[in-house]
Specification:
215 residues, mainly beta, eight-stranded antiparallel β-sheet, rod-shaped
Length: 215
């Protein structure tokens, strides 16, 4: 009986050892290969992946180009004023009634308003011959002009003061009669011209016509 129990214990111990070995063989063995990332499960939030973005090198913006304003026609302006003056004592007897002269002018300066100056003479002489005698009219004037040329390009204007200084003489010879009738004085006229060829300013007994010359 004692020998039977011994054998039973031996068989039970061997059975326990066998079960233990079997249990160890059923445990999962880790793979020696590198772990592979698993696919994200459906509904799980995706992790943002940072992608390097090239940063543009800052630079200066292109300089804005402002178109240069058109040059003023006043700059370097030159021309003439045709001055027409009514000669009253000549007109009353039918002589040529108008004395005509030319006054050259020029603008100076490097910026508006440009100064304008000019000067010129006007001379007149005419005689009426009749059976009773003669009627002679002479006139000599010194004409000067000064002022300025200004205004935006395309709308320039001349603002001038015209001054006429001189003398006039009427001589009458008739059947032994001799008479002389002198006059002397100064007259001024304020003129304004658009900068256009042929522009005219006029008043009672006078007219001035603008003629533009070269620049």
């Amino acid at each position: 009986m004692h020998l039977y129990q011994h054998r039973l214990q031996y068989v039970l111990s061997a059975l326990v050892l066998l079960l233990a070995l079997l249990a160890c063989s059923l445990l999962p063995t880790p793979s020696p290969e590198a772990a592979t990332p698993t696919e994200p499960q459906a509904g799980a939030p995706e992790m943002a992946t940072a992608t390097p973005t090239p940063t543009p090198t800052p630079g200066l913006p292109p300089a804005a180009t402002t178109p240069a304003p058109p040059p003023s026609r006043c700059e370097g302006l030159a021309g003439q004023l045709e001055v027409q003056v009514l000669v009253g004592p000549a007109e009353v007897v039918g002589l040529e009634p108008v004395a005509v002269g030319s006054v050259p002018f020029a603008a100076s300066g490097a910026a508006p308003p440009y100064g304008v100056q000019g000067q010129g003479p006007i001379s007149y002489e005419d005689t009426l011959q009749q059976e009773w005698g003669s009627y002679t009219v002479t006139m000599d004037l010194d004409v000067s002009v000064q002022g300025e040329c200004s205004g935006e390009a395309g709308g320039e204007q001349l603002d001038l003061v015209l001054e006429m200084t001189g003398e006039q003489l009427v001589v009458v010879d008739a059947e032994g009669f001799h008479g002389e009738y002198p006059w002397a004085g100064t007259q001024t006229r304020e003129l304004a011209f658009p900068l256009e060829e042929g522009a005219t300013a006029q008043g009672e007994g006078w007219a001035v016509v603008l003629h533009l010359g070269g620049r």
